[in-house]
Each structure stands twice: as C-alpha cells, then as structure tokens.
Design a protein that fits this description.
This protein has helices at residues 27-34, 74-86, 166-176, 211-223, and strands spanning 2-8, 11-17, 44-50, 58-64, 69-70, 94-99, 102-110, 116-122, 127-131, 142-147, 151-156, 182-188, 194-201, 205-206, 230-235, 238-243, 249-261. By secondary structure, it is of the alpha+beta class. Helices cover 17% and strands 42% of the residues. The chain is globular and about 50 Å long. It folds into 2 domains: 2-123 and 252-261, Diaminopimelate Epimerase, Chain A, domain 1; 127-246, Diaminopimelate Epimerase, Chain A, domain 1 (Roll). The termini are close together.
C-alpha cells in the first residue's frame, strides 16, 4: 500500500488515502507501520476515505501508534489536508473533513516551499471543566479537564523543569481515567502572550507537539487568567498560534516528508 508521511511541528503521521475503503485498516496494521524500529515510524496513522460532496470532502479515521482510535488531532488533520490537496483529491485551499469529533475545516496557505504549507484549522469549541484538586502536588498548581473533541487533562506548573517526569505522570493518570486522556503541562511565558507546553499523548507517549493539546492548554489558561484571546503555545517541536473564541482557530506549519510503498506482512 502507498502511504505519505507528513509532520506538524514534529508530530508525525502516515496518511493512507483509500477513498473506496478497500484497505483493511486494523489496530495491528497501525502498530506495525507506526513502529519506529520495524515499521515506517509515526505518532499515528490516518485512514482517509471518501466524503459526501454536499457535506464534507473526506473522512478521517485516526489510529494512535499503539493501534487505539483517537477522535481528533489538530496536527494530524493538517497533515491529512496537505495529503489530499497534494494528491489532487481536493482543490483547496479549504478541506472539510468528517472526524470522530465532528466536521472540521482546514485552510492551507502556501509558504513558498514545495513541501510545506501553513494550515489553519477550525478546531471547534473547547469545554473547560471545573478545577480538580486530586492532581495537585508540589509541581502542579491547578488542573482541569478540557474537551476539544478529545479529552485532555491540563496541569498548570509554575515552570517546566527536569524534576517533572511527564511519562510517569501520564502513565499513572491514564491508569485512573477510563479510556485514557492526553496530559499537558503548561507554564506561562517565556514571552508576553505565550505559553510553554509539554504533552503526554495517550496511546503514543511524549510527542514533539499536539494540536488539540495546544488548544486545550490555551482554553484552560484563559480561564485561569494566564492567557488572552490570542496566544502562542510553544512546544518542543515549535509554536502553535491559537485564537480563542466560540470555536478555536489553530495555525501550524505542516510539512510533506515522503511517499512510501509499504509491504504489509
């Protein structure tokens, strides 16, 4: 089968365009292709099938690296949009995608580089829950769950330093939350209008960036008085620009990496 590989801020995905849904895409296949040692390597696999012309261009099914399904990915849907426009399936610049979290629209803007685009995604509304005290400790001042089509637990830390083991924290939290949850640590700064974030993604582990996570931390930070309507969320893979409103708008760069012929065993 032919795949393309893309990344948004280092959060990388394999895209399988299968408009007729002829391929058998299973958790086993997702684990195999996403394995960084024996497969191609990625944080997730995006299975793209046909849409309904009057409603949406294509349909997205997202499999995490562990084979589990996820409802939505901001960087993933940006990669998908780039893939279908490059393949000539959608003319662009707008790509309307049916996801497990509902309809989402991606707008692609050329950057002048043949392999990269700037993707702006209407990410839908954020639902910020009440503060939850059970997650607090010496390193976490506040905590709240945020739903942006998929679940997040945002932890406000005074600073992000080596004393915080996000892998251990993410694993322990996921043992307690049914169906799992993405876990973000966020601290103010370094500049005005900026937040710094690290993320543990359920089914993946530490990732370079997370689009839905950036939206979740921005929404929680606004509720806590740490962010205004416009905020830049800095992550290990780079910054995501977020605009908060009735729905959230996220803008990130997206890069085409390679076309791959994958021989399934």
């Amino acid at each position: 089968m032919q795949l393309t590989k893309h990344h948004g801020l280092g959060n990388d995905f394999l895209v399988l365009i299968d408009l007729d849904a002829a391929e058998s895409v299973t958790p086993t296949l997702a684990r195999a292709v996403c394995d960084r040692h024996t497969g191609v390597g990625a944080d997730g696999l995006l299975h793209v099938t046909g849409g309904r012309a009057s409603e949406h261009d294509v349909t997205m099914a997202l499999y995490n690296a562990d084979g589990g399904r996820a409802e939505m990915s901001g960087n993933g849907i940006s990669c998908l949009a780039q893939a279908v426009v490059r393949a000539g399936i959608v003319n662009g610049p707008n790509v309307v995608v049916q996801t497990d979290a509902g309809l989402r629209t991606v707008t692609l803007e050329p950057t002048g580089h043949a392999q990269s685009d700037r993707a702006t995604v209407d990410m839908g509304p954020a639902k910020v829950g009440d503060d939850e005290t059970e997650w607090l400790d010496d390193h976490v001042l506040r905590a709240a769950r945020v739903d942006v089509g998929n679940p997040h637990l945002v932890l406000h830390a005074p600073r992000l330093d080596a004393d915080i083991d996000l892998v251990a924290r993410g694993l322990s939290i996921n043992e307690l939350v049914p169906d799992g949850i993405n876990v973000e640590l966020v601290a103010p700064g370094p500049g005005d209008g900026e937040l710094t974030m690290r993320v543990y993604e359920r089914g993946v582990g530490l990732t370079e960036a997370c689009g839905t996570g950036a939206c979740a931390v921005a929404a929680a930070a606004q509720r806590w008085g740490l962010a205004e309507k416009r905020v830049t969320v800095r992550q290990p893979g780079g910054p995501a620009d977020i605009v908060l409103g009735d729905t959230i708008e996220m803008t990130v760069p997206v890069v085409f990496v390679a076309t791959i012929e994958y021989a399934a065993w």
